[in-house]
Specification:
The protein is an alpha/beta fold and about 525 residues long. The chain has helices at about 20-40, 55-65, 65-80, 100-115, 170-175, 185-195, 230-235, 235-240, 250-260, 275-285, 320-325, 325-335, 350-380, 395-415, 415-440, 440-450, 455-475, 480-490, and strands spanning about 5-10, 40-50, 90-95, 120-130, 135, 155-160, 180-185, 200-205, 205, 215-220, 220-225, 265-270, 295-300, 300-305, 305, 345. The strands form four sheets. A six-stranded parallel sheet has the order 3-2-1-12-13-7, sandwiched between helices. The chain has a four-stranded antiparallel sheet with strand order 5-4-6-8, covered by helices on one side. Strand 4 and strand 5 (about 135) form a beta hairpin. Helix 2 crosses helix 3 (about 65-80). The structure holds zinc ion.
Length: about 525
């Protein structure tokens, strides 16, 4: 019986084109989806855009265009990441125009109201539109939002509030027990600290006037619109038809992936952890719905030392990068170089160096050598080898290869993409080492001098097998590169295809050594 794995990205605001930080997140989620498919699970992978934010409204007003036009334009730019980054998402939801969304938000609201968790209150507070949230004075840094470095606005209005305080103990138990797995540990501890600081009820609506009418109306209260975070978080279930907006058997996907699914995993950035690990989970508890099973949190990217943000003008365009260097090179830098904890600094030089060292010299060279050896010494025919009998000296390579899948599974369950790639890369390194140690070209010379053919056959069989398992294990990380490796190792009409350089070096200069 296959397991159901549902994975989502956060849905970004669409007040600008996507930057490299979102590329990191969606590539991570893509790796998780491809990995679970490779392991035989049923997978559904959702991404989309948060259209109903006040930020979008402000950006539209600044440009002098209707907000619907602005969100259409930028939502299109997010959807257009798919091909350049080789993404495999199954579904893309837009919270303003998608007919699935509004009925689900309204149903979720009514479910919380039925639990007695929504009430009206007059409220005065400090609101950061960048974050779309209220801050207490103690949470500010010198009077400014710690994320956006701007002074929040004084807002006084009558809002609907959600009784978050009621869920403090249950939330703590869920996080501390690991029933809701938050990775890495530093983020889990951050959530526990926040819960232990005391959870206060939070505002879940805005006046329709302040929202200029943009957003989803509160059911039964036409003067208010639903708070954009309550609205946005609901996308994870409205996309599955929760609320009956999906047509056909209206909630079949919701049952399959959310209610009865085995794993429900959100991939998010560290800045929105509280919304997912506390607010969203509490809303689901209130509505009597199943909870996410995992929240994997990434840190931020900087570019040449500067913080990456849509507004600060240093947003590296992931599409332009992928057009210049290819999806594999961009994905590889994001997956191989970004540490599990701590911000990572992107430069084009680092991407180029990573590509040349790993993909061109390490992987490309290995596959090219093996294919060349098989063509040269066996006329391209895959040597027959006794599978039970590993040639002397191959033990370590065979062990590394056998251990890699479990190491990858463990690392990806913790959202540690660098550790996962390390396990796969050990095969590349050990296979290259094995070529150097066995020197197949000398075995071929010995054959010509009368030695038996068994030794060279066995060595080539081990190497081809290593390349094939690389093609499989790399496919979640580098889908296009893995397909090239697989094609190079697959006989056509009985013979391996002529070797081609699979991954050209970006920087010229010293050529990669060939066998
Ligand atoms: Zn802010």
């Amino acid at each position: 019986m296959t397991r159901g794995f549902y994975v989502t990205t956060a849905i970004p605001y669409v007040n600008a084109r996507p930057h490299l930080g979102f590329a990191l997140e969606i590539v991570q989620a893509d790796v998780l989806a491809r990995h679970r498919r490779l392991r035989g699970d049923r997978v559904r992978f959702l991404t989309g855009t948060d259209d109903n934010s006040l930020k979008n409204l402000q950006a539209a007003e600044a440009e002098g265009v209707p907000v619907a036009e602005l969100v259409d334009r930028y939502a299109g730019a997010f959807a257009a990441l798919r091909d350049p980054l080789a993404l495999s998402y199954d579904d893309f939801i837009r919270t303003s125009s998608d007919p699935r969304h509004r009925p689900g938000v309204e149903r979720l609201w009514r479910a919380c109201a039925a639990s007695g968790d929504l009430y009206r209150k007059h409220y005065r507070g400090l609101y950061c539109v960048g974050c779309e949230r209220f801050y207490t004075p103690a949470e500010l840094d010198g009077g400014r939002c710690p994320e956006h470095r701007i002074e929040p606005q004084q807002v006084a209005e009558e809002n609907w509030f959600f009784r978050l305080s009621r869920y403090q103990d249950r939330l703590r138990e869920l996080v501390a027990s690991g029933a809701l797995r938050i990775e890495p540990a530093v983020r889990r501890n951050e959530v526990l600290g926040f819960i232990d600081g005391g959870l206060e009820d939070f505002s879940v609506s805005r006046s329709r006037t302040r929202a200029r009418g943009w957003g989803i109306g509160v059911p039964g209260d036409p003067d208010q619109v639903v708070y954009v975070w309550f609205d946005a978080l609901a996308n994870y279930i409205t996309a599955l038809g929760y609320g009956g907006g999906a047509g056909g058997d209206r909630e079949a996907a919701f049952r399959e992936w959310w209610r009865d699914g085995d794993q429900r995993v959100h991939v998010i950035g560290k800045g929105i952890l509280r919304f997912h690990a506390v607010y969203w989970v509490a809303v689901l508890l209130s509505a009597g719905l199943p909870l996410p099973t995992g929240i994997l949190v990434h840190d931020y990217l900087t570019v040449e030392g500067a913080k990456l943000s849509k507004s600060s003008g240093n947003a590296i365009d992931p599409v332009a990068l992928a057009e210049r260097f290819g999806a594999d090179a961009v994905r590889w830098w994001l997956l191989r170089e970004v540490p599990r904890v701590g911000d990572a600094d992107f430069t084009v030089e680092r991407l180029e160096a990573r590509n040349d060292e790993d993909l061109a010299n390490g992987l490309g060279n290995l596959v090219n050598r093996v294919a060349t050896l098989v063509r040269r010494f066996r006329d391209g025919r895959v040597p027959a080898a006794n599978p039970g009998e590993a040639p002397a000296g191959a033990e370590r390579l065979l062990r590394v290869r056998a251990e890699a899948p479990a190491l990858v599974d463990d690392a990806l369950a913790a959202g540690d993409f660098r550790r996962a790639t390390t396990a796969v890369w050990a095969i590349v390194e050990d296979a290259n080492r094995y070529v150097e140690a066995t020197r197949p070209w000398e075995l071929a010379r010995a054959e010509r001098d009368g030695a038996s053919s068994g030794r060279l056959d066995a060595v080539l069989a081990v190497l081809l097998d290593a390349c094939r398992s690389l093609a499989a294990e790399l496919s979640p990380f580098l889908p296009r590169a893995a397909a090239k490796v697989a094609a190079q190792c697959e006989p056509r009409s009985g013979r391996l295809p002529a070797p081609e350089p699979l991954f050209p070096r970006i920087r010229q200069g010293r050529a990669a050594p060939v066998a």
